UniProtKB/TrEMBL annotation:
Residues 1-32 have a biased composition (Basic and acidic residues). The keyword Repeat does not apply. This is Nucleotide-binding protein. It comes from Streptomyces spinoverrucosus. ATP binds at G62, M63, S64, G65, A66, G67, R68, S69. Gene3D superfamilies: P-loop containing nucleotide triphosphate hydrolases (3.40.50.300). Residues 1-46 are annotated as: Disordered. Residues 56-211 form the RapZ-like N-terminal domain. Keywords: ATP-binding, GTP-binding, Nucleotide-binding. Residues 218-335 form the RapZ C-terminal domain.
Amino acid sequence: MTEQDKQSTAKRDQETEETHKVTDEDRTRQDAPQDDGAQVGTGIEAGGVPEAAIPELVIISGMSGAGRSTAAKCLEDLGWFVVDNLPPALIPTMVELGARSQGNVARIAVVVDVRGRRFFDNLRESLADLDTRGVTRRIVFLESSDEALVRRFESVRRPHPLQGDGRIVDGIAAERELLRELRGDADLVIDTSSLNVHELRAKMDAQFAGEEEPELRATVMSFGYKYGLPVDADLVVDCRFLPNPHWVPELRPFTGLNEEVSGYVFNQPGAKEFLDRYAELLQLIATGYRREGKRYVTIAVGCTGGKHRSVAMSEKLAARLAAEGVETVVVHRDMGRE
């Protein structure tokens, strides 16, 4: 081998050695942990996700046929990231992925129902996991009467997902039993028995459309006992201890929104005292609800027909709550049914 060939060979060996050295250094840098100031995942042990990065979470559940899909669509239209029929065990994972999105997924709504009944037992464990991570979550439960649910399933000619070889009412009963505990834990229960799609959307908009979440929202609902108790009521007030304006001929055609009817109701013995004391009781209850993180309460005020006494009392009670800083909506469920 000539001297020139020896020099060429040595030069190639040196270049090869340097190339290998650069490649090893690059690989070392790639394998090393990157410290760019960002946390990935919820990583409780590693310090966790900053609190501001954790998405707001709403879990939508309830009876099949009660309007879960409509409620979910409403939140989707309001800008929420909605996942339908997600297995409960994957809810913490979904929250973690939202936390990694750098604010792109700030609000997540998850629909959980009996279509995923094989995974439903994991829901309690997932909720406990979310509480451990400090995730603020709310449960919206869609309720409806058996009659309304049967009518809806028959109108679309579809079986109830739990009826098996039985009847629709058998599936409804099984589902109620399965969801009983979840309903008790719900932050917001909406009875859709007498609501159409537009009315349900209006209720969801009223609860979730605001940019700033109030401390407590109250719905004060008048109703008539002869039409049944509202199933979504948290508190029930009975005004039947007051004389009924129905038996006063000149007041019978009017409602509790009329000044003469309202004046008649509150001129009765005990009416003003009842309003004052119950309003004080609600202040105490509202303080406890805020402390426990409950954001929604439905107060049902009843009389015989839901036209006079309950309407007048609901209006006054709602005004008291609003004066105390509680965002209040008044609904007169049965007014006009007579």
